[in-house]
Specification:
- By secondary structure, the chain is mainly beta.
- About 10% of the residues lie in helices and about 35% in strands.
- The chain contains seven helices and 37 strands.
- The strands form nine sheets. It has a six-stranded mixed β-sheet, with no helix packed on it.
- The longest helix has 11 residues, at about 165-175.
- The protein is globular and about 70 Å long.
- The relative contact order is 0.13.
Length: about 600
């Protein structure tokens, strides 16, 4: 990665990065595996900019796969062309081609991230994107610590796959299933390292070296394709101060929960005896134990300066199993301290409690600087109800699905989304609305504007129906929902248990953050006078719809363009649990999407 400051440090700087896409061999789990990387780095490089900076990233594709990069959590105000999801806002960067993403980060600060947004390549193409606040918008919690953050550290919770993820993706597309019979088809990892519970992994274990009495800011990001995580540092308390690049009221806890796509800033003080070191533990959260899992926990070391320690016994929690092959026996070294208590892998009560404790720093209808600067709508123009479901499509030759003769699919309001291939939705929309454009019918060949506001059937969404196919049938289509500029939108995101039983769904909205104003279990019932939090709701870009429950979000559609909404579990997005919003232009240049850049990729 090369960084060039294109001007003097001012409130608006130009920061230029070069991303070269390569496939180096990488040694993990006793094997050398070729993986797709940025600049031969796994995880990828961290981008660190300041609010107000212009970010210029030139991506040069030197691999055999098509590539796009999504700037997850960057709102892309008036720059939808740079958002990155393949066939939604752009055609991919083809092999031996390049494209320069060019956008300004404005109106936000905090920890977000970047990743590939095509097939399953984000498994290894990902990294942190840190937006430092400018001097007019300092961290609201700095007065609590009095500027005593000693160091900040990026902590990426993810996976390492031993099988080519493109082959896995192709199999999922063709059959609707994924085989995890091999216990090491993928390993949980912290900053790309599985840790000593996995074979051949002890030497590379992630270690955070700390000094007693110092306070550290951990920028935790869940980059996993499939797994939600419970994360802890043995005998240490973490204080959550930010989620998804938006500040929160401080909340102290010994364990945090984080879902794919989400980011979270916590501070932790090294306040334990310095002659010991302590286990960092990342464990998969699986609310539905009917879904088979073979993952061991990823472990790291919170290593105090001057301590002597050993993996003896291996770093475990009450819910983990040990691996004697990774033990080392040294008489003078202290074993790592492990968590004295830890939630079970299906402890939905803990997860629901943790989510309920995350509160925003305050919100108001105008989005003032005393809040998170994003307006909270108190009145609603568009009221939407989206049912998230696992579905079934006829497939006589498919095996391994929930119903014989059918392949697994996923849908929102029983529409299983299909990506276009001839061009992306954004240019089709943009050019179809230009008076001097020849192909006025381009839009009709790419998408339709009839995505339903409500599900086609009303039923007991979180119950277990006797005839699941009655509700699990899905229609494939490329359907979008059109929003007027300035619309005040509320979406009820309703989970279901039609085929696979209740599951959580981390739902991500591109293009703007939203407020989480309510959440609950069972079926959402507007008539029951649901209490909406319109005082201090958290601002997020990725929200967890609880297992067997629902979540209500609100936002103002004030960013013209084409914006993807989807589940961030890669299996579900591959199956079709996604849809697209088109936000129309408003009035004047500050409410109108500019034309595409000159080097915009073509399909």
């Amino acid at each position: 990665m090369v960084l060039v400051a294109l001007s003097n440090p001012t409130p608006c700087r130009g920061m230029h990065y070069f991303f070269v896409i390569l496939t180096p061999p990488t040694l993990r789990l006793c094997n050398a595996t070729s993986i797709v990387t940025v600049n031969d780095q796994f995880p990828g490089p961290t981008i660190r900019v300041q609010e107000g900076d212009r970010v210029i990233v030139t991506v040069r594709n030197h691999v055999d796969y098509n590539i796009t990069i999504h700037w997850h959590g960057v709102n892309q105000r008036l720059s939808a062309w740079n958002d990155g999801p393949a066939y939604i806002t752009q055609c991919p960067i083809q092999p031996n081609q390049s494209y320069t993403y060019n956008f300004t980060v404005e109106g936000q600060a905090g920890t977000v991230w970047w990743h590939a947004h095509i097939t399953w390549l984000r498994a290894t193409l990902h990294g942190a994107f840190i937006i430092e606040p400018n001097r007019h918008n300092l961290y609201p919690y700095q007065h609590i610590l009095k500027g005593k953050i000693f160091k900040d550290e990026v902590v990426l919770l993810g996976d390492f796959w031993t099988q080519n993820v493109e082959e896995i993706y192709t199999a999922v597309v063709e059959t609707g299933t994924i085989s995890v019979a091999n216990p090491y088809i993928y390993a949980s990892a912290i900053n790309g390292q599985p840790g000593p519970l996995y074979p051949c992994s002890e030497a590379g274990t992630y270690r955070l070296k700390v000094k007693r009495g110092k306070t550290y800011l951990l920028r935790i990001i869940n980059v996993s394709l499939l797994d939600e995580f419970l994360f802890a540092i043995a005998d240490h308390t973490m204080t959550v101060v930010e989620v998804d690049g938006a500040y929160t009221k401080p909340y102290s806890t010994s364990v945090v929960f984080i879902s794919p796509g989400q980011s979270m800033n916590v501070w932790v003080t090294a306040d334990q005896p310095a002659n010991r070191s302590y286990t960092i533990l990342s464990a998969s959260y699986i609310p539905n134990l009917l879904i088979a899992t073979h993952r061991l926990n990823a472990t790291g070391v919170f290593e105090y300066e001057g301590s002597s320690w050993t993996f003896n016994p291996p770093a475990t929690s009450p819910t983990t199993s040990s691996d004697s092959n990774t033990s080392r026996h040294h008489h003078k070294l202290q074993p790592l301290v492990t968590p004295s208590s830890f939630p079970a892998q299906n402890d939905s009560n803990f997860v629901d409690m943790f989510i309920s404790q995350i509160k925003g720093i305050g919100a108001d209808p105008k989005g003032s600087k005393s809040s998170n600067r994003v307006p909270l709508p108190l009145e609603i123009d568009r009221n939407l109800f989206f049912v998230l479901s696992i579905n079934a499509l006829p497939c006589p030759s498919c095996t391994g699905g929930n119903i014989p003769g059918f392949r697994n699919a996923a849908a929102i309001n029983n529409i299983s989304f299909v990506l276009p291939t001839s061009t992306a939705i954004l240019p089709a929309y943009y050019y179809s609305n230009k008076q001097n454009y020849a192909d006025k019918d381009l839009q009709q060949h790419v998408y339709t504007t009839d995505f339903p506001d409500f599900p086609p059937l009303v039923y007991n969404y979180t119950g277990m129906p006797k005839n699941p196919l009655q509700y699990a049938d899905a229609n494939k289509g490329t359907k979008v929902s059109v929003l007027e500029y300035g619309s005040r939108v509320q979406i009820v995101l309703q989970g279901s248990s039609t085929l696979a039983g209740p599951e959580t769904h981390p739902i991500h909205l591109h293009g703007q953050s939203f407020y989480v104003v309510a959440t609950g279990l069972g079926n959402f019932d507007e008539a029951s006078n649901v209490q909406m939090n319109l005082v201090d709701p958290p601002l997020r870009n990725t929200v967890v719809v609880p297992s067997g429950g629902w979540t209500v979000i609100r936002f103002v559609a004030n960013n013209p363009g084409v914006w993807f909404l989807h589940c961030h579990l890669e299996l579900h997005i591959t199956w079709g649990m996604e849809m697209v919003f088109i936000v129309k232009d408003g009035k004047g240049p500050q409410q109108t999407l500019p034309p595409p850049p000159a080097d915009y990729p073509k399909c």
